[in-house]
Amino acid sequence: MTKIGQQVLAVIDEALSLNGRAQAFRRDTPLLGSLPELDSMAVVGVLNLLEERFDFIVGDDEIDGSTFATVGTLVSFVENKLASAGHPS
Questions:
Q1: Does some domain include residue 89?
Q2: What is the CATH number of the domain that holds 20?
Q3: Tens digit of pLDDT for each residue in 47-71?
């Protein structure tokens, strides 16, 4: 997992209170619909922590259920946000 991927896992772990379980997740680990902790309120919490950790803003029209399909789709979303903002990856 990339450095950004590891940071995303840390955000998932913190937001969902997984007590370190997220560190075992891989890019193909399903999220939405597979983790009972990841409900609609938790999605908001994950997004807020991602915005804080990576210093970007997520617009309402930028996300949908596919963003949270797997760890990989969420990591790709963050990587794309960082690239479009000119942040180094």
A1: no
A2: 1.10.1200.10
A3: 999 999 999 999 989 999 999 999 9
